[in-house]
Amino acid sequence: xxxxxxxxxxxxxxxxxxxxxxxxxxxxxxxxxxxxxxxxxxxxxxxxxxxxxxxxxxxxxxxxxxxxxxxxxxxxxxxxxxxxxxxxxxxxxxxxxxxxxxxxxxxxxxxxxxxxxxxxxxxxxxxxxxxxxxxxxxxxxxxxxxxxxxxxxxxxxxxxxxxxxxxxxxxxxxxxxxxxxxxxxxxxxxxxxxxxxxxxxxxxxxxxxxxxxxxxxxxxxxxxxxxxxxxxxxxx
Length: 236
What we know:
Helix content: 25-40%
Strand content: 15-25%
Radius of gyration: 29 Å
Number of strands: 12
Structural class: alpha+beta
């Protein structure tokens, strides 16, 4: 029997941080990492130069905000597009470009999809998200995003790109706690690529040839003996 344990807000935040690092690193073919320290804040805000937010609801409610500096946004955007095969000469150079906003919005969508998929499976709950919204923000402007949270907990985590450009994740959700029951068994994770490879190897295994069996004298003898026995039982 497994001992019970709890999953709280900071555990959920850590899962979100892993999703941000994993998705941005894999899609941009670069190293994106998060700080080991988490800052407690009073409320979430959209800040310069490029802010993105999405609201989620279901098993628990909350808000995710990512504030990119212009340099961080452009670095991630350009690395992503080059990794997708786009020529560098055709890429935007300003974070105010619509192309940059569209790409960063798509990456935010992938981040939340990765996070929701993992957390829904682990916590055995259902979560939905709103379409991420991107805003290019002036230096003088800070926007607060209010959500209907009963007892909100807000956190900020800093991230660093491969070229040492900083951006921030801000996260707010209801104070909550998930408690795993002692007899609950988690589904085992599996690697889809390994599964496909295993099936591929099985498909290429040499099959037993029935023609070779029919040509085998020992097999013929067995078949003939069985036929003689049957004819004897019938009195023929």
